[in-house]
Amino acid sequence: MVHIPVGVSARHIHLSPIHAERLFGDKYQFTVIKPLSQPGQYAVEETVAIVGPKGRFDKVRILGPVRGRTQVEISRTDAFSIGVNPPVRESGDIYGTPGVTIVGPKGEVKLEQGVIVAARHIHFHTSDAIAFGVTDKQMLTVRLNGERPLVMEQVIARVSDTYALAMHIDTDEANAAGVRTGDTAVIIRA
Protein backbone atom coordinates (compact mmCIF):
# COMPACT_ATOMS: atom_id res chain seq x y z
CA MET A 1 0.00 0.00 0.00
CA VAL A 2 1.51 3.31 -1.14
CA HIS A 3 1.05 6.35 1.09
CA ILE A 4 0.46 9.65 -0.68
CA PRO A 5 1.66 12.84 1.05
CA VAL A 6 -1.11 15.27 1.95
CA GLY A 7 -0.87 19.03 1.61
CA VAL A 8 -3.38 21.24 3.40
CA SER A 9 -4.20 24.42 1.50
CA ALA A 10 -5.22 27.43 3.53
CA ARG A 11 -6.94 30.36 1.81
CA HIS A 12 -4.76 31.82 -0.93
CA ILE A 13 -4.79 33.70 -4.20
CA HIS A 14 -3.26 33.32 -7.65
CA LEU A 15 -2.86 36.68 -9.42
CA SER A 16 -2.86 37.56 -13.09
CA PRO A 17 -0.01 39.84 -14.24
CA ILE A 18 -2.41 42.78 -14.72
CA HIS A 19 -3.88 42.41 -11.23
CA ALA A 20 -0.43 41.95 -9.66
CA GLU A 21 0.66 45.29 -11.14
CA ARG A 22 -2.57 47.04 -10.10
CA LEU A 23 -2.15 45.80 -6.51
CA PHE A 24 1.64 46.18 -6.12
CA GLY A 25 2.84 48.56 -8.81
CA ASP A 26 4.37 48.42 -12.27
CA LYS A 27 6.91 45.60 -12.80
CA TYR A 28 6.79 44.64 -9.11
CA GLN A 29 8.89 41.56 -8.25
CA PHE A 30 7.49 39.27 -5.55
CA THR A 31 9.74 37.83 -2.83
CA VAL A 32 9.66 34.02 -2.84
CA ILE A 33 9.61 32.56 0.67
CA LYS A 34 9.23 28.84 -0.03
CA PRO A 35 8.62 26.32 -2.79
CA LEU A 36 5.37 24.34 -2.76
CA SER A 37 4.81 20.63 -3.39
CA GLN A 38 4.30 21.12 -7.12
CA PRO A 39 7.40 21.88 -9.21
CA GLY A 40 7.71 25.57 -10.10
CA GLN A 41 5.01 26.67 -7.62
CA TYR A 42 5.88 28.85 -4.63
CA ALA A 43 4.54 31.07 -1.86
CA VAL A 44 5.58 34.71 -1.72
CA GLU A 45 6.10 37.02 1.23
CA GLU A 46 3.58 39.58 0.02
CA THR A 47 -0.10 39.26 0.90
CA VAL A 48 -3.38 40.94 0.01
CA ALA A 49 -6.74 41.44 1.69
CA ILE A 50 -9.90 39.96 0.23
CA VAL A 51 -13.19 41.66 1.01
CA GLY A 52 -16.65 40.15 0.63
CA PRO A 53 -20.12 41.48 1.41
CA LYS A 54 -19.94 40.43 5.09
CA GLY A 55 -16.29 40.40 6.01
CA ARG A 56 -12.62 40.62 5.19
CA PHE A 57 -9.50 38.49 5.40
CA ASP A 58 -6.19 40.28 5.69
CA LYS A 59 -2.82 38.70 4.91
CA VAL A 60 -4.07 36.26 2.26
CA ARG A 61 -1.03 34.48 0.86
CA ILE A 62 -0.16 34.93 -2.81
CA LEU A 63 1.06 31.83 -4.66
CA GLY A 64 3.20 32.09 -7.76
CA PRO A 65 3.98 32.24 -10.52
CA VAL A 66 1.38 34.62 -11.93
CA ARG A 67 -1.43 33.01 -13.93
CA GLY A 68 -3.63 33.94 -16.85
CA ARG A 69 -6.57 34.78 -14.56
CA THR A 70 -6.84 35.75 -10.92
CA GLN A 71 -8.33 33.05 -8.69
CA VAL A 72 -9.12 33.06 -4.95
CA GLU A 73 -9.29 29.68 -3.18
CA ILE A 74 -11.08 29.58 0.18
CA SER A 75 -12.74 26.99 2.38
CA ARG A 76 -16.50 26.76 2.85
CA THR A 77 -16.06 28.17 6.38
CA ASP A 78 -14.14 31.14 4.93
CA ALA A 79 -16.94 31.68 2.41
CA PHE A 80 -19.56 31.93 5.17
CA SER A 81 -17.35 34.42 7.04
CA ILE A 82 -17.06 36.88 4.16
CA GLY A 83 -20.54 36.33 2.70
CA VAL A 84 -19.90 34.64 -0.64
CA ASN A 85 -21.15 31.31 -1.97
CA PRO A 86 -18.49 29.85 -4.26
CA PRO A 87 -18.91 26.47 -5.94
CA VAL A 88 -16.55 23.55 -5.45
CA ARG A 89 -14.41 23.59 -8.59
CA GLU A 90 -11.12 22.44 -10.01
CA SER A 91 -8.45 25.10 -10.07
CA GLY A 92 -8.83 27.33 -13.11
CA ASP A 93 -12.57 26.68 -13.56
CA ILE A 94 -13.84 30.09 -12.47
CA TYR A 95 -16.63 30.82 -14.98
CA GLY A 96 -19.79 31.96 -13.20
CA THR A 97 -18.19 32.08 -9.75
CA PRO A 98 -18.59 34.99 -7.32
CA GLY A 99 -16.11 37.80 -6.99
CA VAL A 100 -14.55 39.77 -4.15
CA THR A 101 -12.54 42.94 -3.80
CA ILE A 102 -8.78 42.42 -3.52
CA VAL A 103 -6.80 45.10 -1.70
CA GLY A 104 -3.06 45.54 -2.10
CA PRO A 105 -0.58 48.22 -1.02
CA LYS A 106 -0.87 50.19 -4.30
CA GLY A 107 -4.51 49.67 -5.25
CA GLU A 108 -7.48 47.38 -5.38
CA VAL A 109 -9.23 45.11 -7.84
CA LYS A 110 -12.95 44.39 -7.97
CA LEU A 111 -12.89 40.78 -9.12
CA GLU A 112 -16.13 39.99 -10.99
CA GLN A 113 -15.58 36.23 -10.74
CA GLY A 114 -12.83 33.93 -9.52
CA VAL A 115 -13.66 32.68 -6.00
CA ILE A 116 -13.82 28.89 -5.59
CA VAL A 117 -13.70 26.19 -2.96
CA ALA A 118 -11.02 23.98 -4.51
CA ALA A 119 -12.09 20.43 -5.28
CA ARG A 120 -10.02 17.85 -3.41
CA HIS A 121 -7.55 16.24 -5.75
CA ILE A 122 -4.36 14.24 -6.11
CA HIS A 123 -1.58 15.38 -8.40
CA PHE A 124 0.05 12.42 -10.16
CA HIS A 125 3.17 12.59 -12.27
CA THR A 126 2.42 10.59 -15.43
CA SER A 127 4.67 7.76 -14.22
CA ASP A 128 2.84 7.66 -10.85
CA ALA A 129 -0.54 7.54 -12.60
CA ILE A 130 0.61 4.52 -14.58
CA ALA A 131 1.87 2.82 -11.41
CA PHE A 132 -1.43 3.53 -9.60
CA GLY A 133 -3.53 2.62 -12.63
CA VAL A 134 -5.37 5.95 -12.73
CA THR A 135 -6.18 8.38 -15.51
CA ASP A 136 -6.57 12.15 -15.62
CA LYS A 137 -9.93 13.35 -14.19
CA GLN A 138 -10.75 9.92 -12.75
CA MET A 139 -12.67 10.04 -9.47
CA LEU A 140 -11.01 8.20 -6.58
CA THR A 141 -11.94 7.11 -3.07
CA VAL A 142 -9.20 7.89 -0.56
CA ARG A 143 -8.63 7.27 3.15
CA LEU A 144 -6.93 10.08 5.07
CA ASN A 145 -4.64 8.76 7.80
CA GLY A 146 -5.09 11.52 10.35
CA GLU A 147 -6.02 11.69 14.01
CA ARG A 148 -9.61 10.99 12.94
CA PRO A 149 -9.24 8.77 9.83
CA LEU A 150 -11.76 9.65 7.17
CA VAL A 151 -12.76 8.24 3.78
CA MET A 152 -13.23 10.82 1.02
CA GLU A 153 -15.03 10.13 -2.23
CA GLN A 154 -14.87 12.13 -5.45
CA VAL A 155 -11.17 12.91 -5.20
CA ILE A 156 -10.07 14.04 -8.65
CA ALA A 157 -6.95 12.52 -10.21
CA ARG A 158 -4.92 15.19 -12.00
CA VAL A 159 -2.19 13.77 -14.21
CA SER A 160 0.70 15.62 -15.87
CA ASP A 161 4.40 15.27 -16.59
CA THR A 162 4.87 18.47 -14.55
CA TYR A 163 3.21 17.24 -11.32
CA ALA A 164 4.67 15.63 -8.20
CA LEU A 165 2.64 13.10 -6.23
CA ALA A 166 0.56 14.91 -3.58
CA MET A 167 -3.02 15.10 -2.36
CA HIS A 168 -4.44 18.58 -1.77
CA ILE A 169 -7.34 19.31 0.58
CA ASP A 170 -8.54 22.48 2.25
CA THR A 171 -8.52 23.39 5.93
CA ASP A 172 -12.13 22.30 6.52
CA GLU A 173 -11.40 18.83 5.16
CA ALA A 174 -8.12 18.59 7.06
CA ASN A 175 -9.76 19.59 10.33
CA ALA A 176 -12.52 17.00 9.87
CA ALA A 177 -9.90 14.25 9.58
CA GLY A 178 -7.33 15.66 12.00
CA VAL A 179 -4.82 15.81 9.15
CA ARG A 180 -1.84 18.14 8.78
CA THR A 181 0.49 18.77 5.89
CA GLY A 182 2.89 15.82 5.76
CA ASP A 183 0.34 13.22 6.88
CA THR A 184 -0.63 10.60 4.32
CA ALA A 185 -3.54 9.21 2.38
CA VAL A 186 -4.19 5.86 0.70
CA ILE A 187 -6.28 5.19 -2.40
CA ILE A 188 -8.86 2.57 -1.51
CA ARG A 189 -10.81 2.58 -4.78
CA ALA A 190 -9.83 3.81 -8.19
TrEMBL record:
Keyword Repressor: no
Domain of life: Bacteria
GO BP, sorted A to Z: 1,2-propanediol catabolic process
Cofactors that this protein relies on: Zn(2+)
Keywords, comma-separated and alphabetical: Acyltransferase, Metal-binding, Transferase, Zinc
EC number(s) stated in the UniProt entry for this protein: 2.3.1.222
Gene Ontology terms, MF aspect: acyltransferase activity, transferring groups other than amino-acyl groups; metal ion binding
Its job: Involved in 1,2-propanediol (1,2-PD) degradation by catalyzing the conversion of propanoyl-CoA to propanoyl-phosphate.
Family: Belongs to the PduL family.
Protein name, as recorded: Phosphate propanoyltransferase
